[in-house]
Amino acid sequence: MVTEELAGRVAIVTGGANGIGRATAKWLARNGAKVYIGDVHLLPENHDEFFTLGIEEQECDVRVEADVEKLVARAVKAEGRLDILVNNAGIGMAKPITEVTEEDWDACLGVNLKGPFFGCKHAIRQMQQNGGGVIVNTASNAGLLPRQHDPVYSISKMALVGLTKSLGLCHAKDNIRVNAVCPGPVCETGMMNADLEKSSDPKAMKQGFINASPIAKALNRMITPEEVAEAIGYLVTDAARFVTGTTIAIDGGKSLGVSQS
């Protein structure tokens, strides 16, 4: 879908240099929004396409409040408003709790939870002045149910779902909607590619991710970043004007329960 439905609206996407963030930034721009992305690692291969789409890039470590504040301030200074925030930046943490160090914990919770907290804090201040806005947090199906292999990651995403619901309730009076998408398994993301690169058998690992999701198994493929971006796109448009404090699982039924093998 390509429309001008978001014309005149200003959006920020964190973790926008690759994967779901990049797909979302492009979707928003193609549908009329002026988009600013922040990422701790900007990628040269994005520059030409982003320039063509009018997407602005800025280095941003979401764990650092000053970085997030600068990203929001840049968009607001240039455009005079902020309408959409997609808190997408995230990292994985696949370790048993007995092997998780304090540094590991701080890194995972810092990116996956503190980053969205900073984003919401500074975006909401601007959105209140605009008379409303939309925030979408990229959580995970790990935010809907615990997972055995990555408890700290699950904690971070469950807390992000809690933040989503709480802020959706707190700021409905401001006409600010806050929702979350809970994807998985998604191909061609920085997190997924890193996991596959570390595996001794990437092909088998990839098939394991596919087999864990009923629809992914039926189609024999992972979800694409573009499919998640479409769901985020729905949430930021007026079609979802009465949707707040909710989560959309984009996981092919992985979070529904134990399916027959």
Task: Walk me through this protein's architecture.
By secondary structure, the protein is α/β, with parallel strands linked by helices. The chain folds into 2 domains: 10-184 and 225-250, Rossmann fold (3-Layer(aba) Sandwich); 187-222, no CATH class. The chain is 46% helix and 14% strand. The chain is built from 9 helices and 7 strands; from the N terminus they run βαβαβαβαβαβααααβ. The chain has helices at residues 19-30, 47-53, 65-79, 102-130, 151-170, 190-198, 202-211, 214-219, 225-236, and strands at residues 10-14, 34-39, 56-59, 84-87, 133-138, 176-183, 247-250. Strands 3-2-1-4-5-6-7 form a 7-stranded parallel β-sheet, sandwiched between helices. Helix 1 links the parallel strand 1 (10-14) and strand 2 (34-39). Helix 1 (19-30) packs across helix 9 (225-236) and helix 3 runs parallel beside helix 4.
List the main descriptive attributes of the protein structure presented here:
single chain, Rossmann fold, globular, 261 residues, alpha/beta, 14% strand, 7 strands, seven-stranded parallel beta sheet
How would you summarize this macromolecular structure in one to three sentences?
The chain is built from nine helices and seven strands. By secondary structure, the protein is α/β, with parallel strands linked by helices.
Shape: globular
Please name the CATH topology of the largest domain: Rossmann fold
Strand content: 5-15%
Q: Order of SSEs, N→C?
A: EHEHEHEHEHEHHHHE
Please state the second-level CATH architecture of the largest domain. 3-Layer(aba) Sandwich
Oligomer: single chain
Distance between the termini: 35 Å
Radius of gyration: 18 Å
Strand line-up in the sheet with most strands: 3-2-1-4-5-6-7
CATH class of the largest domain: Alpha Beta
The overall pLDDT, averaged over residues, is 94
Summarize the amount of helix as a percent range.
Answer: 40-55%
Spell out the CATH superfamily of the largest domain: NAD(P)-binding Rossmann-like Domain
Number of helices: 9
Largest sheet: 7 strands, parallel
Number of domains in the coordinates? 2
In the predicted model, the low-confidence regions spanning at least 5 consecutive residues are none
Number of strands: 7
User: What class would the helix/strand composition place it in?
Assistant: alpha/beta
